[in-house]
Design goal:
Elements: H1 2-35, H2 38-58, E1 64-70, E2 81-84, H3 91-94, E3 102-106, H4 116-122, E4 126-127, H5 133-145, E5 149-152, H6 170-178, E6 182-188, H7 190-193, E7 204-210, H8 224-243
Parallel strand pairs: 1-7, 2-5, 2-6, 3-4, 3-5
Antiparallel strand pairs: 6-7
């Protein structure tokens, strides 16, 4: 019964936030676009989406808490390729912890969400399923060149049992071809807060640990397959260590 009221409280505030904040964000971007170039507008728009993520994450506090741990550098003047494990539908909102301007690589379902799907498309989030390999690589390379970081969930789907699945190669091929640093981002507790296949949320603690980046020199001469295997092992070991302290 308590869980029912908790979910009612969360979704009520979530709907109110959508009704109030989305129009405000839209107005803000529309007004600034009048006085700014396209690049500046996109930067502000992506920051607005981060603030939206912060708002959604704040709604269930203190029932759901977030712990972000930074190990290594976090230079906002650089672009990175972030590699995240994927256990829950809330993972996209967890990227609010990143101080970088970024886009996410997603499947087609986020674009089908009313209103928010339009925002994701306008922010240049990339639907990897609908793009050819050439088009995807060209657009991703362009974004990295603009100083925009890219967030990948290379498993391609959420884990059912919490164990990390095998990685697809796109992120690692992009890193090898562009020389962009890779940053592993390990997340635990999210599968408890909102398990795959459920819209009900539960109280809990979500840990997000950002590991040191792998610079281009660290994977010079490696194939995308070898690189993704190395990153998978690094993240698997870190996730095991994180879960042992839950």
């Amino acid at each position: 019964m308590l869980n029912f009221f908790f979910n009612f409280y969360f979704y009520l505030l979530f709907i109110l936030a959508v009704l109030v904040l989305i129009p405000l964000f839209t107005l803000y971007v529309a007004l600034t676009r009048t006085f700014s170039n396209h690049r500046s507008t996109m930067r502000r728009f992506r920051r607005a989406m981060v603030w939206w993520g912060k708002t959604v994450a704040f709604i269930p506090y203190p029932f759901i808490r977030f712990r972000y741990e930074l190990n290594g550098e976090n230079d906002t003047k650089k672009s990175y390729i972030f590699i995240c494990n994927h256990r829950s539908a809330v993972d996209a909102f967890l990227m609010k912890v990143l101080p970088h301007e970024f886009v996410e690589i997603v499947n087609d379902w986020p674009f089908k969400i009313p209103v928010l799907g339009i925002f994701a498309r306008f922010a240049a989030f990339l639907d990897i399923r609908s793009m050819s390999h050439e088009a995807f690589m060209a657009k991703a390379t362009e974004l990295l060149g603009q100083g925009v970081s890219i967030v990948f969930f290379p498993e391609g789907t959420r884990s059912v049992d919490g164990r990390m699945g095998s990685f697809h190669s796109a992120a690692f091929r992009l890193a090898v071809e562009t020389g962009t640093p890779l940053v592993p981002l390990c997340i635990t507790g999210n599968e408890i807060v909102m398990p795959k296949g459920s819209l009900f949320i539960k109280p809990g603690i979500i840990k997000i640990r950002q590991l040191p980046p792998l610079a281009a020199d660290d994977f010079t001469g490696l194939t995308p397959f070898t690189l993704k295997s190395r990153v998978w092992k690094i993240m698997e070991q870190e996730l095991s260590a994180m879960e042992s302290t839950l």
